[in-house]
UniProtKB/TrEMBL annotation:
<dbReference type="GO" id="GO:0009897">
    <property type="term" value="C:external side of plasma membrane"/>
</dbReference>
<dbReference type="InterPro" id="IPR003599">
    <property type="entry name" value="Ig_sub"/>
</dbReference>
<keyword id="KW-1133">Transmembrane helix</keyword>
<keyword id="KW-1003">Cell membrane</keyword>
<feature type="domain" description="Ig-like">
    <location>
        <begin position="144"/>
        <end position="229"/>
    </location>
</feature>
<dbReference type="Pfam" id="PF07686">
    <property type="entry name" value="V-set"/>
</dbReference>
<dbReference type="GO" id="GO:0007166">
    <property type="term" value="P:cell surface receptor signaling pathway"/>
</dbReference>
<keyword id="KW-0732">Signal</keyword>
<keyword id="KW-0325">Glycoprotein</keyword>
<dbReference type="InterPro" id="IPR013106">
    <property type="entry name" value="Ig_V-set"/>
</dbReference>
<dbReference type="Pfam" id="PF08205">
    <property type="entry name" value="C2-set_2"/>
</dbReference>
<feature type="domain" description="Ig-like">
    <location>
        <begin position="14"/>
        <end position="132"/>
    </location>
</feature>
<keyword id="KW-0675">Receptor</keyword>
<keyword id="KW-0393">Immunoglobulin domain</keyword>
<dbReference type="InterPro" id="IPR013162">
    <property type="entry name" value="CD80_C2-set"/>
</dbReference>
<dbReference type="GO" id="GO:0031295">
    <property type="term" value="P:T cell costimulation"/>
</dbReference>
<keyword id="KW-1015">Disulfide bond</keyword>
Length: 232
């Protein structure tokens, strides 16, 4: 018999809170060799529970997905409940290893996700399966672009270097022959929703000499750079 999975926001039901506490209590011990999934921001990640059940059996089992100590999704009596932070961007596929797919990944989605399967046995629900998947969400800065802004004053030229869409907080510096230069203006902003950074910096230089400038952006343990050459 086919069943339609229904989505919803958890209501204030005492038994649901009790189940949540029971699930949390059983997750202090994790199996070794946790699977790791690495994705970038805004992509989709599929996390597998590595467990198969029939559609008919779905009516009787309880399935919980949670991240660290936070509930993500639950399937009870064939009905799916998605917690608010994952609503409208998390789906489950009971026909494929009880996996969940998280869409439009955010940096805050980093963490360890655990799938718990409980089945009825002698009047109560017993733990039958538990697996964990570590999700790592990256946000790499693209190679910076350097744009010529023209002449702010006679014999002087102004250029701007910028890059966006990365994390963590970056640092931008201008270099010439390995020496750091003083920039004219540096701006840094962070998108409140995606947590991604945008950074830009302007540099003024004397047009009467040849130059080779490097715009270097550091974030975490990574760097990206771009070179600008000027011939007088």
């Amino acid at each position: 018999m086919d069943h339609t999975l229904k989505w919803g926001i958890p209501s204030k039901r005492p038994y649901l809170k009790l189940f949540q506490l029971l699930v949390l209590a059983g997750l202090f011990y994790f199996c070794s060799g946790i699977i790791q999934v690495t994705k970038t921001v805004k992509e989709a990640a599929m996390l597998s529970c590595d467990y198969n059940i029939s559609t008919e059996e779905l009516k009787r089992v309880r399935i919980y997905w949670q991240k660290d100590n936070e509930m993500v999704l639950a399937v009870m009596s064939g009905k799916v409940t998605v917690w608010p932070r994952y609503e409208n961007r998390t789906i489950t596929d009971v026909t494929s290893n009880l996996c969940i797919v998280i869409l439009a990944l955010r940096l805050s989605d980093n963490g360890t996700y655990t799938c718990v399967i409980q089945k009825p046995e002698k009047g109560s629900y017993k733990l039958k399966h538990r697996t964990s998947v570590k999700l790592m969400v990256r946000a790499d800065f693209p190679v910076p672009s350097i744009t010529d802004l023209g002449n702010p004053s006679p014999n002087n030229r102004r250029i701007i270097c910028s890059t966006s869409g990365g994390f963590p907080k970056p640092h931008l510096s201008w270099l010439e022959n390995g020496e750091e230069l003083n920039s004219t203006n540096t701006t840094l902003s962070q998108d409140p929703e995606t947590e991604l950074y945008t950074i830009s910096s302007e540099l003024d230089f004397n047009m009467t000499s040849n130059h080779s400038f490097v715009c270097l952006v550091k974030y975490g343990g990574l760097t990206v750079s771009q070179t600008f050459n000027w011939q007088k």
